[in-house]
Amino acid sequence: MDFNHKLITWYSDKKRELPWRETSNPYYIWLSEIILQQTQVKQGLPYYDAFVTQYPTIFDLANASETSILKLWQGLGYYSRARNLHFTAKHIVNELDGKFPNTYKDLLKLKGVGDYTASAIASIAFNEVAAVVDGNVYRVLSRYFGIETPINSTLGIKEFKSLASTLIDHKQPATYNQAIMEFGAIQCKPKNPDCTVCPFQDSCVALQNQMVDVLPVKLKKTKVTVKYFNFLVFMDPNKKHFSKNALKKVFGNISFNFL
C-alpha cells in the first residue's frame, strides 16, 4: 500500500535515534512504554536511562524495593505506573520464570498494560502483527482519511482500531507501528503541523478540506460540579416562620428567596 510505503520511507529518514529502538529485548521495550505513558519522550528519556542503568534486567527490577523504585521515579508523576512496573516485574520473575509473555493476548494480562502497550510490545519485541493506536495514531488517521468520528467514543475507538489493523504492514509490523507513532509525534503534530513538507500533502483529506485544525474530533466530557448549600430558617419564639417583610425590617433591603 502506498500509505505504508510513504510512511516507512519517511520514518527511515526522519526518525529520532532512541535507545529502545536499538533493541528487541521485551524488558527494555516494556520499560520504555510504561515510562512514556502520559509522558513526552524528552522528559522520559533520562528516566529510561536511569532505570536501565540501575536495573539492567527484569530480575534486578523485581528484587528492588518499592521505595528505591519510587525514588528513581520521582518527578515523573502518575506513581501507579511505577508500582505496576514493580508488581509486573515480580510477577514475571516469580510466576513466569523471568520470561516475558510473547503475544498480544498474554501481554494484555499484565498489570498496567492496556491495548496500546500490549500491541507495541508484541509488535516491536516479537514482530506480531498487532496495530498500535495511541494519540498520535488517532491524529494521523483522522486527518489523512478525514474521519470525524470522535476518538474517545465507543464507536470511534472500534473504528480506528479496525482501520489501524487493516493498514499495518504484515511484513514489518514493528517498523510500521513505530513509523506511524513517530510521524504523529514530530510531523503531524497537534498544533501547527508543517503540511508543506508532509509526504501525504497530495492525499490528506484534512489538508484538502482545510480540516487539519479540527481533526481529530474529541467529545467534551461533562464536568459535574458538586455544590453545597446552607439554609437558615428564621422563627419567632412561638416557632413560626418570619415573613419576608419581617425579615426585611431586621436585615434591611436584602433579597430573600422562600422555597
UniProtKB/TrEMBL annotation:
Cofactor dependency: [4Fe-4S] cluster
Record-listed E.C. numbers: 3.2.2.31
The UniProt record lists the keyword DNA damage: yes
Pfam families xrefs: HHH, HhH-GPD
CDD domains: ENDO3c (cd00056)
Keywords assigned: 4Fe-4S, DNA damage, DNA repair, Glycosidase, Hydrolase, Iron, Iron-sulfur, Metal-binding
Membrane-crossing segments per the record: none
Classification lineage: Bacteria, Pseudomonadati, Bacteroidota, Flavobacteriia, Flavobacteriales
Family from the record: Belongs to the Nth/MutY family.
UniProt catalytic activity: Hydrolyzes free adenine bases from 7,8-dihydro-8-oxoguanine:adenine mismatched double-stranded DNA, leaving an apurinic site
Protein name per Swiss-Prot or TrEMBL: Adenine DNA glycosylase
GO biological process, one term: mismatch repair
PANTHER family documented for this protein: ADENINE DNA GLYCOSYLASE
Gene Ontology MF: a single term: adenine/guanine mispair binding
Record function comment: Adenine glycosylase active on G-A mispairs. MutY also corrects error-prone DNA synthesis past GO lesions which are due to the oxidatively damaged form of guanine: 7,8-dihydro-8-oxoguanine (8-oxo-dGTP).
Domain HhH-GPD: from-to ranges: 35-186
Highest taxon, organism lineage: Bacteria
Keyword Transmembrane among record annotations: no
Organism listed in the record: Winogradskyella psychrotolerans RS-3
